[in-house]
């Protein structure tokens, strides 16, 4: 199983709503990532979890709250978002969990969750 | 972070080879060169990576300049399914191994 599964595929929410995006992988990967991608732009790194601990937060606003309940699951909790937060949110995973683990592994991406904030 | 520079767009005829360039003049000795591509309406997918030597796999070849300041992704026979945005990424495995930063990428159009 070389898949990263993201749910939901599409999400529409109001600015006062609380919602969550979910990501799951069963490849035994120890690093998991959230990226944000606006139309016709490259993916932007938001968060990285390494061995279930948050290792990188790219100065993301607190209205985005990541959570890694276990090594297979990654959530992104959304609260009080703005319309400009509308984007494709991509989850990815990789085998190595720290910079010196082993030879650099590839990133496996899910198909993304398309978020629209009204 | 070391940066990469790629042309915004390129065109290729179907069944012809495609050479996608990437400049990374500030590359460090511990930076691996990764290539990913993103087909329309999909997440990015891994294509190939290398450190110093040229690399081949079933999808493509990676040619790395001797001074490592540039690299070229080679698709040997472009097909319509290769139309995508191709990203060249540097990954410093010793210091910031999990920080995969995407550059602007090259949008490849394949002409039938």
What does this structure look like?
The complex is a heterodimer of chains A (118) and B (112). Chain A is an all-beta fold and 118 residues long. Chain A has no helices and 11 strands. Chain A has strands at 4-7, 10-13, 18-25, 31-37, 44-50, 53-57, 64-70, 73-79, 87-94, 108-109, 113-117. In chain A, strands 2, 4, 5, 6, 9, 10 and 11 form a 7-stranded mixed β-sheet that branches. In chain A, strand 7 (64-70) and strand 8 form a beta hairpin. Chain B has 112 residues and is mostly beta strands. Chain B contains no helices and 9 strands. In chain B, the strands form 2 sheets. A 5-stranded mixed β-sheet of chain B has the order 1-9-8-3-4, with no helix packed on it. A 4-stranded antiparallel β-sheet of chain B has the order 2-7-6-5, with no helix packed on it. The termini of chain B are far apart. The interface between A and B is medium-sized, with 30 and 27 residues.
Keywords for this entry:
heterodimer, A: 118 residues, mainly beta, 7-stranded mixed sheet, 4-stranded antiparallel sheet, 0% helix, B: 112 residues, 46% strand
């Amino acid at each position: 199983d070389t898949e990263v599964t993201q749910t939901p595929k599409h999400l529409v929410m109001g600015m006062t709503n609380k919602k969550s995006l979910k990501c799951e992988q069963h490849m035994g990967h120890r690093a998991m990532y959230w990226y944000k991608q606006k139309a016709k732009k490259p993916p932007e790194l938001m968060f990285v979890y390494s061995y279930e601990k948050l290792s990188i937060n790219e100065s993301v606003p607190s209205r985005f709250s990541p959570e890694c309940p276990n090594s297979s699951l990654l959530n992104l909790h959304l609260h009080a978002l703005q319309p400009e937060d509308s984007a494709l949110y991509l989850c990815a995973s990789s085998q190595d969990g720290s910079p010196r683990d082993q030879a650099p592994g590839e990133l496996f991406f899910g198909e993304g969750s398309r978020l629209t904030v009204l | 972070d070391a940066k990469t520079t790629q042309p915004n767009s390129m065109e290729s005829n179907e069944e012809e080879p495609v050479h996608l360039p990437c400049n990374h003049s500030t590359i460090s000795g511990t930076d691996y060169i990764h290539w990913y591509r993103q087909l329309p309406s999909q997440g990015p997918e891994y294509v190939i990576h290398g450190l110093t030597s040229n690399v081949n796999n079933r999808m493509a070849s990676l040619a790395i300049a001797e001074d490592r300041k540039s690299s070229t992704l080679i698709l040997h026979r472009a097909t319509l399914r290769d139309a995508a945005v191709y990203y060249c990424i540097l990954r410093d495995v010793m210091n910031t191994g999990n920080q995969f930063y995407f550059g602007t990428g090259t949008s490849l159009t394949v002409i039938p």
